[in-house]
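Before relying on records like the one below, remember that each one covers exactly one chain. Contacts with other chains, cofactors or solvent are not represented anywhere in the record.
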Amino acid sequence: MTRVEAGFFVTGTDTGVGKTRVACALVTRLRALGLDVGAMKPVETGVGPTGPADAIALRAAAGSVDPLEDVCPQRFTLPAAPDVAAAAEGRSVDLAAIRAAFERVKMRHEWLVAEGAGGLLAPLTEAVSMADLAGWLGLPLVLVARARLGTINHTRLTLEAARARGLGVAGVVISRADGELSDPDARNLARLRSELGELCVGELPFLAPGAPVPPGAIDVERLIERVRVGARWDN
């Protein structure tokens, strides 16, 4: 019998867009609402001698209950797509290890926030993408979109890819990860907001390293409403 009832899979329009900030903010807010939340970064690349930084941040946000080996079962040094980073070490991404860690984490918690690596179609293996992993976990997506020129195309492509694969999208969070917006960026972003409508559930300002996401920047309560029905594991 599984314990987890619902959760989110945080993905992005590209890398370095602010997925970890959003995932940590989701975990923090869910816990503040009295929910039992676990967190995972199934695969992390660019891991240095101090360990998987994204996974460590997620684990701390979740209360540091789960072993780091369960939070991040697959780690690679090269800052590249997971299968590329694994190949650089003469390895491959161990999908069975991810599954086993997921089974352990989901038995401990009512909610789970998982953060992907790179964008939705980043490859885990030659045949398996991050989208496949999201589908296997059964979690609706929270898409983090970069606030700059090109974001309309990148966001549309990601949403189209998600829907083509039958992945539910709980919401989109816009992230100003690159700093202040130019006038063209701002106009482009206004167009995206208009197109997303109610699917846009938040916007992150430019934040200094280590700065927390401002309270209320993400409408977590609206996300919860969207996943309470139909976001359960039946297997």
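The chain has one domain: 6-227.
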